[in-house]
Amino acid sequence: MRILGLGFVAFCAIGCGVIQAAPPTPRELEAVRLQLQEMKASRDRLVSGVFRITGKDDRAVNAGAMKKTRAVNCFCAFDHSKDLFRWDRDTGEVVVAHQCEPVKQDFNLALMAIFIRRPEFTLHYFNGNSVDEVYQRSASATPCPEVAPFDVRCLGLAFNGTLDRYYPFARLFKACHDQRIVEVTETDGISRVVSSPSADSNVFFTTWFNQKQGCSPIRTELRMGAMSSPPIQRSETTWKETHGVWVPATFVGEDYDSAGKAPTREMEWTFQWESVNGLVPDRHFTAAGMGLPPETRIVSDESGKRVVLGTIGGAAPVPMAPR
Questions:
Q1: What is the DSSP letter of 232?
Q2: Top-level CATH class of 27-174+240-311?
Q3: 192, 205 in Cβ contact below 8 A?
């Protein structure tokens, strides 16, 4: 897989240190601030939705001698106004190609994980557990690593590793907003912003924002050591407007080794939106709506002992007392 570049040859030259831009002026810094606020306002307009992701997530193992491919099939439903969130990840079967050759060996490791968050509690399911059960835990409990959910509003801002762990958009936006701006360039409504955590940091983030698409981030690059270093992570996101809201359509991401040469992870995702700012059925956020057998038990394990609360086919889970 190859990042296409979206025609940003001139931008990439600047970002790689071929041309060094002058320090940003106060006017440029104010323009970046306003663009970030516009981007936040655009993301805040996405209140509820239902979408699916299909694609792949390839990772190198054993120093690149093997390539592990896992299909990506995710389902997400959310309603931020009600603090409701659901993420299903069905990884399909793991395929390992030795020496990255087309000859594939199927290890038949089909994994499915579901995470639901409600204001009262969270529900957790992973078919890799020794017992096929749904666990009901506190509202602040984090999902298991196999679910790997993310806030879709973060796409284009979150670097590839953060997409394996749930970061709320507000938290990621603050981190982006607090960065030190190093360089700013703009051409044809595309702003390129280089930032760093601090003046003495050797970490550099480069983000391209499309002002014609709600200042949506369309490309990101991460460099370590110097601005002239090759990126060790990069991604591209395309967006489409639905009901006046910009939502992601595709995502392509790549991780590289510390030298920025050999790819260690390659992602290609396509988003199919079933609903944008429409009414999301509450059933999506219940144990009964998980699509599991009705005899599946619902268990609480946070008190230090295992307590069976019921089954999916029975009564709704009993909310846990506040902790």
A1: S
A2: mainly beta
A3: no
CB 221 within 8 A of CB 233: yes
The two most distant CA atoms of the chain are separated, in Å, by: 66
Domain ranges of the chain: 27-174+240-311
pLDDT tens digit at each of 323 positions of the chain? 545 444 333 333 333 333 455 789 999 999 999 999 999 999 999 999 999 999 998 887 765 555 677 888 999 999 999 999 999 998 765 555 544 444 444 444 567 899 999 999 999 999 876 678 999 999 999 998 888 899 999 998 877 778 887 889 999 999 888 999 999 999 999 999 999 999 889 999 999 999 999 999 999 999 998 888 899 999 999 999 999 999 999 999 999 887 767 888 899 999 999 999 999 999 999 999 999 999 999 999 888 888 999 999 875 545 544 44
- pTM for this model (two decimals): 0.84
- At 272, give phi and psi (nearest 5°): -115, 110
